[in-house]
Hints:
single chain, mainly alpha, 4% strand
Amino acid sequence: MLYGRTAEQERLARLLAEACAGRSGALLLRGEAGIGKTALLDWLAGTAAAQAHGETTGDGREVRVLRVTGVEPEADLAFGGLVQLLWPVQDRLNALPAPQAAALRAILGTGREQRGPDRFLTGLAVLTVLAELAEDGPLLCLVDDAQWLDRATAEALLFAARRLAAEGVAIVLAGRDDDGFIAPGIPELPLPRLDFEASSRLLADRGRAPALHSQIITESAGNPLALIEFDAARSDQPHQHAPLPVADRVSSAFRARIGGLPERTRLMMLIAAAEGRGDLPLLLRASQLLGTDLGDLAEAERTGLMYVMDGAVTFRHPLIASATYQGAVLARRIAVHRALAEAATDPDCRARHLLAVATGPDQEAALELAAAAGRARGRTAYAAASGLFGQAARLTTEPRQRASWLAEAAALALAAGHATQADRLAQEADELADAWAGGSAGELADAPAAGARVASVRAAVAFELGDRNEAAHGLLARVGNAAPNATPNSAPPEASGLLRTAAAYGWLAGDADAVRTAAARLATAVGAADPLVEGLERLCDDDAEHGLPLLTRFLEGRPDATGPRDAAEEQAVRMLALTCGLLLGDDEAAHALASAEVRRCRSQALIGQLPYALDVLAQTQLLAGHHPDAEAAVTEAEEIARDTGMRRRLVRLGAVRARMAAIEGDARRVRELADATSPALRTGVDCALVLLDLGLGDFGSALGRLDPPPPGPDRYTWLSLSTAADQIEAAVRLGQPERAEEALRHCESWARATTAPWAQAVALRCRALIDDRPEPYAQALHLHEKGGRPFERARTELLYGEWLRRARRPNEARTVLRSALATFEQLRAEPWAGRAAAELRAAGERRVAARVPAESPIDRLTPQELQVVRLARGGSSSREIAAQLFLSRRTVEHHLYKAYPKLGVGSRRELARLDLG
């Protein structure tokens, strides 16, 4: 029976009822040790069981319950919690897509498949398997002592919990409020201490006389476990006012009870506490080595401190295990761990106990820990692997190995999303390598692989933390110190990779000097120019004529097939490849490249890399005038970045939304996005502000908001040509065309170097504005007919129409102005449509007014519904759509169910007749 938990029981009952109705949800119970979290989970499991054996869910289906409990000694054991949760349902893995099934089989140790490289694949696989189980009926997942789950399990469960929607799955986690377990995006229910009335009822039901209630309640402070334990100890221990937290006083009471047990019983309890998992066969093997046996646990069972059943040994409460372990002297604990290590058959378990035995450098233990780390890394449990490599580094007797393992620990910490920890580990590895090699000048040359690893990790950490300049210059310093007087082909092979990465970071940071330095050193290191780096260098010198063809050569050479690369270099080069597609102005090719990268990420379940690819895809969709698609791509990128904990990437996704809002004249939205974006990442949002000012007629602000960037990367962004054109128009309208000279030179230089018709058309439009002549307008419109960037075409038509009207050629003016107005209306570009309508009226058009076009079917859909409907219309099954969008099949069908009435259809077959853009 529970006391004082009516509100909490009602909340949990509603969550279960929602699951029974086909709606998913998650909840985190938060409270101190002994507050009753486990009791509430037990009550909820009992409620679900009662439905299974009596009241069903209403459709005849029973509630399935899966349960996992975090174990403190296993907090560093990769996926230990997930094995506990999914072992009973491993037969359902065959229903999963192949990469997901392989990921879970690798974790469960039931298959030979290789996992993919993305750590979020496991979370996706957990999401899918939970949804598959819910096909049979409502599913309830209970997670106790979540603060002790290994990080890999916690990340996978939380990813799944955040993306559940319409499967009929309820996930309830319980964790302490002082142990650092966080679950962003999951609602929390804090558990308060019991009030006096509830505490009194608990004591009364235990047979305690009312006269003693007040004293026990005061001592326990309303903590249910403390009430029970202090009541049980009442006849043995006088009350003492101790200035200790309730949990500490409860632990003290447990230690006192344990101290009264026979010595052999205490030793068996210590073996169980040190083992942690309740593995009875292992406990018995270790106990034989220490001269005890199962019978020695009888007294602990009799007193209710432990239970032995179903082949497992369990403490009644985790505080009892803690009190047992902490109450033993160090020598006894070491002896127990040594016996457990000797008795263990699982290598990861053995490594954990060898770590507990080590009191100083221990090469055997270090090697075992490093091997365990390698296995964890192979299962993409990067956080656990990082911790194990770090522990191995601290135990090894080999300095070179210590530096190498610390560098690997840093790289894995970064892969796990823990940039600050990665920075600390990489710095430690760097300092150790320098000390061992006699200074950084010789380190890369003497140990190139280890030195390159350290340098690469430190740069990747700096980049992830937002210090992009440091990322580039750190790599340059490392390579420069290693080979200050390098001659052609004399640098170690690792140097070329570091220099290429330095150039990429330098470009993405807008640091032209870093790009130039990397290009010069790379030419020396490999004896030949690299087309990517040389092309970037040329653009830094504003030499688009030679720089853009080099980037074309790089892309045509398939940047994903230029040989093996370090992970950081691979990521940087892929990011640049996507960026280069936009720099070249070939929007169709850039869209194809971004689409292919999105498909690669989806097919290989590379969830962590997907947000950046989706962001670039959204940019190409926006430029093509496909605003709903761009909105859907950015929405998905934001959801994935949020669900995977990559919150730093969220702020980088605002440029697309800001430009859409600027085109539509939504000043409030643009300024909100500007306020939410850090100055270092505001270039795209600032470009949107320029466009907003221009559309609203604030030409002074448009011209003064951004100074023309100096020669370098900032001149070549996906919006830089359009923004230069915006500022040229603002300068002309202000009557200050001389202020547009530099921007015009940049536009024309870029247009000459690219084969993109739209870019050449924009440059001609700008020249027409400056010269006030019609011929460039006409040439520009001819180029616009070849396609690309409808918003830019409509702006050319608007400006040409204005010129024709002023030249008293109204018939010609009305023709181009009608076309401009139609495009602006289609794009919902309200201020621009207003200007086009005003010009049409001035040109003699009757009955003209800017109007919002009739609602398109896709306008009624949410971004995610639009994605699902498009894929369904293309013939993809619900299961295939779920795998691509990292959703469950039931969620996909839920979106289709909601979309059909909005579109006026009733089935997938009817989708084929719709025009979805």
